[in-house]
């Protein structure tokens, strides 16, 4: 049995407190008045490059289409009068004001989603291991079950933030939640059959319920199998794993449309669900490696050896490349055909997010490719830990790149709100995961393939 | 220093062969060669063979392929005749890079795979019309053969091999 060391518990609580303070600072400094934003922008344009920024704000804004439409009508109907210019000015300031107000929401949402997706990816990996009756991984099942314990609270938090942004917030994440925007936007009106708050909430609850039910029963059968006389629990867990994987691939795809793609309601991509899946899958597997190595250095997993680590690292390597394949497929198809209605997505990312957008390809592809190619390196714990931390950071940036351009545009920065949110959810994640690990023995000794796994040798 | 006389010990089980290899090695006899009908897992480790370096070769060949792809397309598409084809930006390599990635990938894989295979053939001396070096045709079917050099210690060696479970032991003069 694992005992949650008090040091780690205090560490996680400190993270939560620090993170909460950071998030609080983020929210309390994001409410700028009209005049404050006006002086801020005047100062910025004074420092040079102001006009270009003004242009890019409008091009990258999430309601770019609406604004462009209004620009066009201005040009047609009126000579540019002093009145029109004043309108433009007001609009611009209101737009920036909204972006500044969005930032703590978006920062919170990105971090919440990131940690939720780690445990969801881990749950998918766990179900695949059971459904495929893998012989190497059963010694890691309890670690996976621990990580997936965060799924229920984590997913509920994500859904609450998303819905709250449209009910108690000022539509800080999803502009399709704003009736004012929808009224003037034919494209969103056409999608309102799917994109409406009650539908969003109900779908979210169904997804979370499905995932959590699988997690609950899989864990129950797994623990019950430890003391069972026969293999009935194993058979049941095999069956529900297969069923869950079918449910998962549908629900994950729809979840990615709802929770991520709909921040840009004018844009769509067909392989987006797979792309988000690859991201969560590799993050989940990396988290398994990190938690396993932590527990092993504490002496709780003496049955885990370098061969298991080697296999997990192989998955980290392969799924990193799979992620890159999907990232590039999505990017290259849109870049190549260059259809205006879909390419704006990458134009805004390329103009305002060049470093994170290209940097994540280095973090998520080049780095793991070179670091984890050698079989000997995959067996060295410190090497896997270092690479794993880089991969996790890279996938945080990945989610950051999905959400931020639509919510804060070029007003992004990784500062107090972002780091605070990461610390808050990292602390929560550690607290929930390691508490769950104390609830059952770390070796699933009743599992039929456990002997093979313990003697696994690559 | 190859011995002119060798002993061929034949086994009919891979587990027996593995334990025999360990015993013979423990007695400090030099195993010249082992012939098996299929890969015996762990035999290379038991014989104390060095690990293969073919993966390192493949990596380097892949780098060659990548370089070939980049150099080729940079010359053709950017330097030699930078046409406007469907509005693709051919001003510099990096601007048109996404369109070249499929070729860069395929050539990397092509070079890595084919040159690695050719390296394997060369290093293991395999080619068409090559004379088969098989001392006993049964080793391609269901028997395992261990070849040990003899340096005036036949009887001791024969006894040792009998102990390890060899079903047949032959003293062979290697024709020169």
UniProtKB/TrEMBL annotation, chain A:
Keywords: Membrane, Transmembrane, Transmembrane helix. Residues 44-87 are annotated as: Disordered. This is Quinol:cytochrome C oxidoreductase. Residues 44-78 have a biased composition (Basic and acidic residues). The keyword Cell wall biogenesis/degradation does not apply. The keyword Transmembrane helix applies. It comes from Neotamlana laminarinivorans. The chain crosses the membrane at residues 106-128, 149-177, 197-217, 238-260, 272-295, 315-335, 355-373, 380-400, 412-437. It comes from the Bacteria.
From TrEMBL, chain B:
This is DUF3341 domain-containing protein. It comes from Neotamlana laminarinivorans. The chain crosses the membrane at residues 54-77, 97-122. The keyword Transmembrane applies. InterPro entries: ActD (IPR021776). Keywords: Membrane, Transmembrane, Transmembrane helix. It holds the Pfam family ActD.
